[in-house]
Amino acid sequence: AVGSADWHRVVPSEWVPVISRDVARQQRDSAQPPFSDAYLNGMPAKRRKLMS
Amino acid sequence: MASGRGVQRVLAKLQKSLDEGNYYEAHQMYRTLYFRYNGQSKFTEAIDLLYNGSLGLLNAKQFASGTDLALLLVETLDKSSTKPSSETLEKLGKLHSLMEKDSVERPTFVGAAVRWSSAEQKFGHPELHKYLAHNLWLERSYSESRYHYVRSNDGEECASMLIEYQITAGFPSEVDLFIAQTVMQCLCLKNKLTANSCFVSYTQQHPQVESGPPFVRPLLNFLWLLLLACDGGTVAVFTILVEQYQPTLRRDPTYNEYLDRIGQLFFGVPPPRSNNPSGMIGNLLSSLFSADDEDETEEEADVINIASNATAFDLD
């Protein structure tokens, strides 16, 4: 992608390994399972209605 | 109008009624005295009377009459333009703790007290929110407790409550989501100190969070870096964080909406082109920023909140 590594120069240099590792890690993440009621209760009312 | 002697006589009778357990009479006499003080603009006296009366009646488990006096107390604070002080906020917290959990009037009391306390802090006084949150935590009304903690100044206590809530009622897949939701809501309310201390305590104390930073879970790293960026970070740094963590942020569709708001508040990102708050985002934010609106229907509440929101957003 165009300028895919440009961000390396923008963020503090000590962040680069952390973010890079997380970019790779996120590719392996599986889909989010359904939320618990406890978690849904923290959402604003309108969104909660749409999610459940 | 009533002479001082008249007041003394009623006070003596009042004490007698209380001693004899005639709470109905006592309640009526509290009201009588309140109207006299009020008529003479003796607000300090009225406030003391109503607090002591409410406290005494609630302690005697006279919930309806105790709460009635508590509502009059808030009304008087409001009418007399009394400024919130630590002492008064603590007293309101005390009365709240004695009211019945499922009382119909308690939400009315909370709404009125928060409104009165928001003269200078637009979402309500953080000290009052802390007392309310603490009482609700003891009752295990976790979700309501969370609402008040994100508006309080006690991030550490918020984290302890949140850990207990997550472990007892959340799923293991939500360990990082619980803190993300709370941190982002605090930031949307411009409550950065609470966001920060809550994040630090939660990640240090939650038994399922591995030591960090950096953390094993990308979402926790995102929050850690976002909080750092909120202290003088540039819009470019903010944008990169939001881009690089998109797969994680999409786990909960509300996160990108919170982040739009956080971008505006902390990084000077302009609001979206269509400034029309009637869409999803307007509704989402308005219900987050609303005061306690449990006594309104949702539709009414949305209209009111959108209207008040327009000003709330501009005042910084």
TrEMBL record, chain B:
<keyword id="KW-0813">Transport</keyword>
<dbReference type="InterPro" id="IPR007317">
    <property type="entry name" value="GET4"/>
</dbReference>
<keyword id="KW-0963">Cytoplasm</keyword>
<keyword id="KW-0472">Membrane</keyword>
<dbReference type="InterPro" id="IPR011990">
    <property type="entry name" value="TPR-like_helical_dom_sf"/>
</dbReference>
<feature type="transmembrane region" description="Helical">
    <location>
        <begin position="222"/>
        <end position="242"/>
    </location>
</feature>
<dbReference type="GO" id="GO:0045048">
    <property type="term" value="P:protein insertion into ER membrane"/>
</dbReference>
<dbReference type="Pfam" id="PF04190">
    <property type="entry name" value="GET4"/>
</dbReference>
<keyword id="KW-0812">Transmembrane</keyword>
<dbReference type="GO" id="GO:0071818">
    <property type="term" value="C:BAT3 complex"/>
</dbReference>
<comment type="similarity">
    <text>Belongs to the GET4 family.</text>
</comment>
<protein>
    <recommendedName>
        <fullName>Golgi to ER traffic protein 4 homolog</fullName>
    </recommendedName>
</protein>
<keyword id="KW-1133">Transmembrane helix</keyword>
